[in-house]
Automatic annotation (TrEMBL), chains A, B:
The keyword Hydrolase applies. This is Crossover junction endodeoxyribonuclease RuvC. GO terms for biological process: DNA recombination; DNA repair. The keyword Iron does not apply. Its cofactor is Mg(2+). Its main location: cytoplasm. Keywords: Cytoplasm, DNA damage, DNA recombination, DNA repair, DNA-binding, Endonuclease, Hydrolase, Magnesium, Metal-binding, Nuclease. Belongs to the RuvC family. Mg(2+) 2 binds at residue 68. Signal peptide: none annotated. PROSITE patterns: RUVC. Binds 2 Mg(2+) ion per subunit. It comes from Streptomyces muensis.
Length: 180, 180
């Protein structure tokens, strides 16, 4: 399973590609940051994010894209840019037919450190260990993107079983079936 | 001046095209709503919004796109979808090199009704009068999109004069000049 993790942001959008399956050692295929200038017009910044994400999709051909789920209770100005950058990442993936998964920050932290309240340093340290890197990826957005990809690989089996159970249930009870 | 107004939303994205200049009667060239199913995946909804906006840009070839500026103090769930739909609209315009302007809801209300606190019905009534329509456009999102386009046409002369003044000032004082 090859996953592109995206930690969305307008100024720094972290991206990281991880390959592997749950229960086996994982491999990092690439990590980086898509940056856009803070003084550029918003529309141009979104185009730059789109071009950056497209390059990563072209180069690594991931089977899944995992994006951090954005909440609006944080800083008002930041959250808008984050929501907009995440929209561009989801759009790029969905346009290619690549399934998009959203994971909350606490899901990601819990997946890689065991605690949903872990700090940046702890996440960076575990990403470094799990991917057998020589040093923590920098900036933190890049490490977070890798953590998202790892989280998706590890959570996917459970999610697939859940989806299969739901599919089985709705197949048995067509009157309650939901549209895809 | 031909302007596409966009009242962003995932479930209903209002779109309206108005042509004219400040101080002269305005003409509506088109109005509608881009809808996406609430039970579809977010990525697919964003792709549907993109396709809808692209169709409107193709058909009407606007010189400007005016999008409602999204604030995050409103309903948390709604504002995320609104921010994401607005990102897609801005992206579509900027990709084509069409300038994007953001106007706040109160700027739009003040422009078309004289009051920044006008209600939906008042905005609808003024849009109907200003564009000489036989009835208010429905749903309200469609009327709001037209109001955005009207607001942009009316505010553009003042904004242009401001930009020219800034450009003149920075040309005279190059040491304080800002990067574009």
């Amino acid at each position: 399973m090859r996953v592109l993790g995206v930690d969305p942001g307008l100024t720094r959008c972290g991206v990281g590609v991880v390959e592997g399956v749950a229960g086996r050692p994982l491999t990092m295929l690439g990590v980086g940051v898509v940056r856009t200038p803070a003084d550029a017009e918003l529309g141009h910044r979104l185009v730059a994010v789109e071009q950056g994400i497209e390059q990563w999709l072209d180069e690594h051909q991931p089977e899944f894209v995992a994006v951090e789920r954005v909440f609006s209770q944080h800083n008002v100005r930041t959250v808008m840019g984050t929501a907009q950058a995440s929209a561009v990442a989801m759009l790029c993936a969905a346009r290619r037919g690549i399934p998009v998964a959203l994971h909350t920050p606490s899901e990601v932290k819990a997946a890689v450190t065991g605690s949903g309240r872990a700090d940046k340093a702890q996440v960076g340290a575990m990403v470094t260990r799990l991917l057998r890197l020589s040093a923590p990826p920098k900036p933190a957005d890049a490490a977070d993107a890798l953590a998202l990809a790892i989280c998706h690989i590890w959570r996917a089996p459970a999610q697939n079983r859940l989806q299969q159970a739901v599919a089985l249930h709705t197949a048995k009870a067509p009157s309650k079936g939901r549209l895809a």
